Structures are given as structure tokens and as C-alpha cells.
Amino acid sequence: MASKPRRKKPYKKPNNISIPSPSFTFSYKKVSVFVSLVMIFGVIFLLGISSNILSGVASVPKLYSVQVINEFPHDPSAFTQGLLYAGNGTLYESTGLYGRSSVRRVALHTGKVEALQKMDDSYFGEGLTYFEQRLFQVTWLTKTGFIYDPNNLSKVLQIGKFTHGMEDGWGLATNGKVLFGSDGTSALYQLDPQTLKVIGKQIVRYNGHEVHNLNELEFVNDEIWANVWQTDCIARISLKDGAVLGWILLPNLRKGLIAAGHNGIDVLNGIAWDDIDNRLFVTGKLWPKLYEIKLHPVKKHFDTGVIEQLCIPPRS
Ligand SMILES: *[C@@H]1O[C@H](CO)[C@@H](O)[C@H](O)[C@H]1NC(C)=O
Ligand SMILES: *[C@@H]1O[C@H](CO)[C@@H](O)[C@H](O)[C@H]1NC(C)=O
């Protein structure tokens, strides 16, 4: 590319250069001015191209495949709804299903449930997050949530129960300042951690489509990452405008488990981020394994509509 503007120029100008002596100095000047201009425009042109490329890359959502770094055991009877890494090899997990809902502390490496608080049978556990030494949990089809002491998982006295401002309780996450919540719609909420009132709301969109069924959430490097229910996709969501910045495609994890004979498993659900060692963990409902994964950008071109088909289920 760099040679193009320069090469074009000498081809055009031989006539001027061969003009006899009186005007020679003048036309030599002309030529050198022209050469300079061409070079300047060439540089501007190249800068233009590269800035187009850069802004193009920044605005087109990226696609990522995953590489499994480690596999850890996971309780295959845990209908995972909320997952977080609390440091020191410890995960906290919230599970669903009526009669089987719980909050638990789990050892990462062994998958051993070290502490478990069973929920009342009338509640179906959903998203979980850790904020200021407390665990916050929401529940399905209600606006009721619970606050637990992370050491013994007992409900915190007096303030152990709350009512939140979302339509339903699906996912929870935090950046240490506000809580982020999902309710199965395309809305990503910001909640006041003291009152649980909605203080902000963004509609999550990809290519003009609303992304419904936002489920388990994780705050990762100033983005919210969300499992999209009933897909093998995780959306990387911008907190500026709710735009999907990228899709993490994980069908190989679920398909690998099924191929290994784990036919009873449910969907991918549960993202945990270790912000000390930059480790990413994922699992699913009734999955016998929890994976540590790394992302790799996908270079392959997908035809129009393919990502929508994979990652954006119709509104439920
Ligand atoms: C980390 O885990 C170990 C083993 O479970 C425990 O003995 C230790 O107290 C924990 N440290 C912190 C800071 O929680
Ligand atoms: C749980 O631990 C807290 C302190 O972290 C304590 O106040 C509370 O009484 C404990 N609950 C139970 C049931 O042991």
C-alpha cells in the first residue's frame, strides 16, 4: 500500500521533467512540490485507513472460543444459578429448583461443599453476589432476596431479607459499588446495595436485536458478562450503553459432557472471575465439572444471522 501513491506519481510526470532548460528549475520545483504533496496525502491516506481499521475492530463485536485450562469436580446435583470466586480457592454458589435450593461454599479444587444453607422449599434460588462481607441472593418468580453471612451462611439478622425493584430475580453481580441484576429480560439493572431499588437500567443489544434471557452475571474488567439462558453463549456487555462487545462461544463444553455420557445435564450457567490471578471459571446446571477457561479470538467469518441464531433465543 505504501508504495502505491509514490509509484503513481513518476509515471504521470515524465512530460514535465523533459521540458527544455529555461523552465527546468521551475518544473523541477513543481515536481518536488508535487512529490511532497503526494507523500503528505499518502501519509494522510494511510493514517485514514489504519484508523478505519482500528475503529472498525473496536465497534464490531468480537467472537471468542474457549480453551480448557483446568477441570474441577462440581456437584452434579447442583442446579447452578449463581457462582462467584471469593479468593483462597473458595467459590460461593447458589442453586435452584424447589426443595433443592441452597447457598453453598465450595472448595474450588475438590468441588467439596464445605458449608451449605438449604433454602425454604417455597423458594427457588437464583443469582448470588458478594458485597461488603455479605452474600446477596435473588429468587425466581419473586422480588424477594436474602442476605447471608459468608462465614456460616446464616441469614444476617434483621436485614436478612429484601425486596428488589426488578421484575424477577435471575442474576446478580457487583463492581463493589452497585449491584448489577438481571430478570430474564433484555435489561441489565443497577441496584442500590442498601435499598435494592433500581438506580439504572440498560437494554442489552446486539446488531439491533434485544438480547433477552440474560441470566447469571459476572463483573469482569469493567464489563458485565452474562450467560444467555438456553444458549451456549456468554455476552460481554458494555456498561456504557448495554451494547454487546463480544460473544464467548462455549458449545464444546456442554457437547463434550454429553458425548462423555452425561445426558442429564442442563444448560451452561455460572461464571466466576478471579480478579487476583485473572482466572475465569464456568459451569452449568447439573454439570459434573467446573472449568477454568481461557478465551481465544475467533478469526473465522460467520455468515449474517448465525450469531443471532446461536446466541439470541426468541423472547420467552
Ligand atoms: C484460606 O483457606 C485455608 C484452607 O481452607 C484456611 O485455612 C485459611 O484460613 C483461608 N484464609 C483466608 C484468608 O480465608
Ligand atoms: C454466623 O456468624 C456470625 C458472625 O460472622 C454470627 O453473628 C452469627 O451468630 C452466626 N450464626 C450462626 C447461626 O452461628
Automatic annotation (TrEMBL):
Key words of the record: Membrane, Transmembrane, Transmembrane helix
Name of the molecule in the record: Glutaminyl-peptide cyclotransferase-like
InterPro entries from the UniProt entry: QCT (IPR007788)
The keyword Membrane is annotated on this UniProt entry: yes
Keyword Transmembrane helix: yes
Sections of the chain in a coiled coil: none
Membrane-crossing residue ranges in chain numbering: 31-54
UniProt cross-references to PANTHER family, sorted A to Z: GLUTAMINYL-PEPTIDE CYCLOTRANSFERASE
GO function terms (MF aspect): glutaminyl-peptide cyclotransferase activity
